[in-house]
Amino acid sequence: MSDEGATPRELVLEACRRNNTSLLSEVLASLNTPHDVANLLNNAKDGVGNHCLHLAASYDDVLDILLDQEDLEVDPVDRLERDTPLHKAIRFINTLPSSQWESASSIADLLIDAGADPRIRNKAKLKPMDLVDPKNKELRNALQKAEYAMTVGDDVVVGDAPDEGPTGSASDSD
Question: What's the predicted TM-score (pTM) here?
């Protein structure tokens, strides 16, 4: 990485804006500790208040690298619309032809799997699900399931797991 020119913050934002995985990896590798990486990624904003995840919310390659970093805040809000990266991802998916919705939904899936909260409302009081094109039933269903899972927490049973011993509180003793 060259010592002249752009700062690590500027390079990270540019890598996210252009889906440049090699530049992003180079900048992250130049930092000393995971704490330094998280600090840079959580505090890097462009001139209009978009964090790196907002800029990467259109690209699953860069997004995947970002979401692998320790202590990354997955629900920062931008300054203008108070959108989270999940809101931005849904807005991006809506711009695509319906034939591309299924593959582009992987962006929303990445964010949800990383812990993005689909219940957060933006400045217009809209949740990401409120932004989904009504014809995109698969994405609506995925967001509804994620919202339900976040609401009920660990009470959701995903499948039939074999009984692995007692469940319930450890303070059941009399």
Answer: 0.83
